[in-house]
Amino acid sequence: MSKLETGDVRARFGRRVETEDLPPMLAPRIPDCRAIGAWKGRSLVGVGMLAKLATGQCEVALIVRSDMKRRRIGTTLVSYAFAEARKLGGREVVAHVRSDNTAALGLVRSLGFMAVGGPGIELFYVARLSMVQALG
């Protein structure tokens, strides 16, 4: 948590998150849920979560350490999430993005997600895996 800026945490979760609140958010006890970590050496620099919501649909959420942004870590996390979604039988991946989180909005748009809901504080995006090329 010490390397996450308050603004980044608020952009992802919509509120201040205390250190003790973070572990359950990163490892929920949901069947067919996958945690994905991005590491630089022994330091965790980004975390993604993929959860199967319904038949053929998964949801992805992620956060990247503030000092490690703009290094394609988010792109890599989403790439792994797409691969895991396919293993779970997913046909589409959804993402909820706050309208003030310009970095996440740019990421989902660049990876083939299409807006399906909003406007408002939270926007909804979907990527149909048949339309998304494997990233690598």
Structural class: alpha+beta
Sheet-strand content, in percent, reads 25-35%
Q: Into which percent range does the helicity of residues fall?
A: 25-40%
Q: Return the CATH class.
A: Alpha Beta
CATH superfamily: Gcn5-related N-acetyltransferase (GNAT)
Rough shape? Answer: globular
Mean pLDDT: 83
N-to-C CA distance = 28 Å
Radius of gyration: 14 Å
| The CATH architecture | 3-Layer(aba) Sandwich
As residue ranges, the low-confidence spans are: none
Order of helices and strands: HHEEEHEHEE
Summarize the model shown.
With 136 residues, the protein is an alpha+beta fold.
What do you see in this structure?
With 136 residues, the protein is α+β, with helices and mostly antiparallel strands. The protein has a single domain (6-128), classed as Gcn5-related N-acetyltransferase (GNAT) (Aminopeptidase, 3-Layer(aba) Sandwich). It has 4 helices and 6 strands; from the N terminus they run ααβββαβαββ. A 6-stranded mixed β-sheet has the order 1-2-3-4-6-5. Strand 2 and strand 3 form a beta hairpin. The model has no long low-confidence stretch (mean pLDDT 83).
Secondary structure elements and their pairing?
Layout: H1 6-13, H2 22-26, E1 33-40, E2 43-54, E3 57-64, H3 73-87, E4 92-98, H4 102-110, E5 114-117, E6 122-128
Parallel strand pairs: 3-4
Antiparallel strand pairs: 1-2, 2-3, 4-6, 5-6
List keywords for this structure.
136 residues; 6-stranded mixed β-sheet; 34% strand; globular
